[in-house]
Design a protein that fits this description.
Largest interface: A-B, 97 and 103 residues
Number of helices of chain B: 14
Order of helices and strands of chain A: HHHEEHHHHHHHHHHHH
Shape of chain A: globular
CATH class of one domain in chain A: Mainly Alpha
Radius of gyration of chain B: 24 Å
Oligomer: heterodimer
Distance between the termini of chain B: 22 Å
Structural class of chain B: mainly alpha
Distance between the termini of chain A: 48 Å
Strand content of chain A: under 5%
Helix content of chain A: 55-70%
Shape of chain B: globular
Helix content of chain B: 55-70%
CATH architecture of one domain in chain A: Orthogonal Bundle
Order of helices and strands of chain B: HHHHHHHHHHHHEEHH
Number of strands of chain A: 2
Radius of gyration of chain A: 25 Å
Number of strands of chain B: 2
CATH architecture of one domain in chain B: Orthogonal Bundle
Strand order of the largest sheet of chain A: 1-2
Strand content of chain B: under 5%
CATH class of one domain in chain B: Mainly Alpha
CATH topology of one domain in chain B: MetI-like fold
Largest sheet of chain A: 2 strands, antiparallel
Amino acid sequence: MRMNAVSLRLPRPFISDHPLPWLLPLIAILVVFALYPFFYNIWLSAHEFIPRKRGLDFVGFDNWVKLFADPRMWNALWVTLFYTGVCLAIEVTLGMAIALLIDSDDPGFGILRGLLTLTLVIPPAITGMMFLLMEDAQFGIIAAFLGDVGLIAPQTAILAEPSLALWGVVVADVWQWTPFMVLIFVAGLRALPSDPYESAMIDGASGWQTFYRLTLPMMGKVIAIAVLIRGIDLFRMFDYVFVMTSGGPGTATYTLSLYAWQQTFSFIKWGYGATISLFALFIVLLVAHLFVSLTKVRW
Amino acid sequence: MLLSPWQRALRIGLAWAVVLAFAFPIFYWLTVAFKPDGDIFSVPPRVFGFEPTVQSFEEVFGISLGFERGLEVLPGGGNFYMLPRLWDSVVVALFSTALAVVIATLAAYPLSRMRFRLQHHFVFWVLSTRMMPPVAVAIPMFFIYKNFGLLDTYTGVILIHALMNMPLAVLLLKSFFDDIPVEIDEAALIDGASRFKIFRKIVLPMAMGGVAATAVLCFIFSWTEFLFVLTLTQTSLKTVPVVSSTFVTSTGTAWGNMAALGAAAMVPAFVFILLVQKNLVRGLTLGSLKQ
């Protein structure tokens, strides 16, 4: 009987207070699928595919030298940063405005918030297709509308115009992700204490003063988290440009992610593509960690 | 702030106008899915006033919905044969979600309940994997998968989607476990229960709502993912977002069919997102903001 009781017990580690057995599966999958590819990528960046040999050759730091001298890479970095900055600015501003508008307990506003969540779950690749159709020069409803209003010439192919193409992609991003900001900001607004607002009202503060002196500072942490998460996703954006423009016209919408992907899989520059993707990885980790330590966001 | 009735009406009107403007592209896309080919290409574009048809859906999925062709299945599985692709999406999303949630629940428990050395760094490492550009994982993973024969397999895609969702699942579940008072664990420990028993019999049942919300979000992110599937599959499986680009051909784009497929991909996600409204913001911010 006693033997039986012992053999039915769980493996020793699960009884102990040690966290390791609990974390082991997670550590295993992170090592195999995050750490190993990371080091493999570093190894790959020191090699290049040689078509004549049908194999990889060691090239040392050549890919990194090439990277820093490559005007197309700098263009891609600029496009990525510009896109990230513009989208963040629009989405935060618009998101805050809409959040203030729909943060209300009146009947119907719950339905409005529910409707806004719908854009978040559409596959970005399909969003890209939607806007590809809507921005079409002939049958596109957005192009037709902008043409009627007079913002662009009638029958303009927005995504084929070097000066407009990136904005055409920005529109899709803003449409899909402004609700992300709205939902987070509404949740933040609802959690704010009401006392300061009562004091402000008694003191006769204007609406704008209340927002600028009370709401904005108290929302600081919420805005920081939203900007961090959205900023990371914007910096690594791939889907929209892949389906909408493939980087064109020319190099007007080449993001760093797309450039790395095309170097590897379209131009068979395995090592160089890996180098660009590593460069993007280092930038995002550096900026994100700086941001986290400056804003003191905690998880 | 106190609003006069007029201001209140204005606010309601404005709020509806803004939200409907955001909903419009979805509505428009749905009309494209139900338009006959001629009306998709009408100049100027039309929103109303067309004869709705399910022809695009029938062509894409190779099924008959019984309006125009009777109830038999189209020969050859239709023009695009997309039903298996929908199935691929479901399989990948379901299994990757299950894997991510199981591993993440186990890991989230000690992160919430125990204190150990380098804990803060470990959490940050998990968070950092959320920051990696997918392309920096997809490129090396393509070559690793090629060597191990995982390219173009369900296993390969399921594993990479589980990894992709791991930071979200771990941090979100940790925040749900944090909501449960630690005194409950302590009382059970004094009564002689093992850690695993506390986890299985007390903490997990109490956090079930959070586990479900986490699973739904993982499912949605796997369902909408594009880059990994594009890179790591070739012919034997493809999910819906990736396959939608095959409608762009040299002879023109089959917009109606693409919209039909897109509509079929959106609807399950819409249903799911409405299920997790209560925990959505917490999920979107990886557990750092509570509603």
